[in-house]
Amino acid sequence: MKRVLKISLVVLVLLLVLGGAVGGYFIHRHNSLYIGRDKALEIALRDAGVDHSALRDRDIDFDSGYGSAWYDVDFETAGMEYEYSLDAVTGEIVYRYAEPEHG
Q1: Confidence class of residue 2 from pLDDT cuts 50, 70 and 90?
Q2: Which single residue of 5, 33, 81, 87 has CA 20 to 30 Å from 96?
Q3: Which tens digit of pLDDT belongs to each residue from 30-84?
Q4: By CB neighbour count within 10 A (0-12 exposed, 13-18 middle, 19+ buried), where does 8 fall?
Q5: Residue 69 β-bridge partners
Q6: How many CB atoms are located within 10 Å of the residue 82 CB?
Q7: What is the DSSP letter of 43?
Q8: 57-65/68-77 β-pairing
Q9: Using 50, 70 and 90 to split pLDDT, how confident is the model at 5?
Q10: CB within 8 A of 82, min separation 6: which ones?
C-alpha cells in the first residue's frame, strides 16, 4: 500500500512539473511572438491622437482564429469612443472606428 502511494505521489509531482514547463513555454511563446497589450494600446492611442492621461476607460482583448491573432482595443475619452483591431504579430491596424460617446 505504501509503495502504491509513493508511486502515485511521484507521478503526480512529475505531471505538475511537466504541466508547469508546458505552461511556461506557451507563456514565453506568446510574449515573444505577439506585440502585447501595452503596445497594442500605444499604437491605437497614437493613431487616434489621444494621450494616455485622457483615457476614461479601456478594454484590451487578445483573440485568435483562422490562422491569425489580433488585439481588440476599445477605449473612451471625454466625449469619444474608439474601437481598434490590430494584428497581434505586426501591430498593423486592421480596423478602426470612432464615434461620439453615447449617453
Answers
A1: confident
A2: 33
A3: 456 899 999 999 999 999 999 999 999 999 999 999 889 999 999 999 899 999 9
A4: exposed
A5: 64
A6: 20
A7: H
A8: antiparallel
A9: confident
A10: 44, 48, 50, 73, 74, 75, 76, 96, 97, 98
0.90 surpassed by pTM: no
Residue scoring higher pLDDT (101 or 103): 101
Which grid cell sits at 41? 494600446
HEC string for 57-94:
EEEEEEEEECCEEEEEEEEEECCEEEEEEEECCCCCEE
| Residues 56, 78 contacting (CB under 8 angstroms) | yes
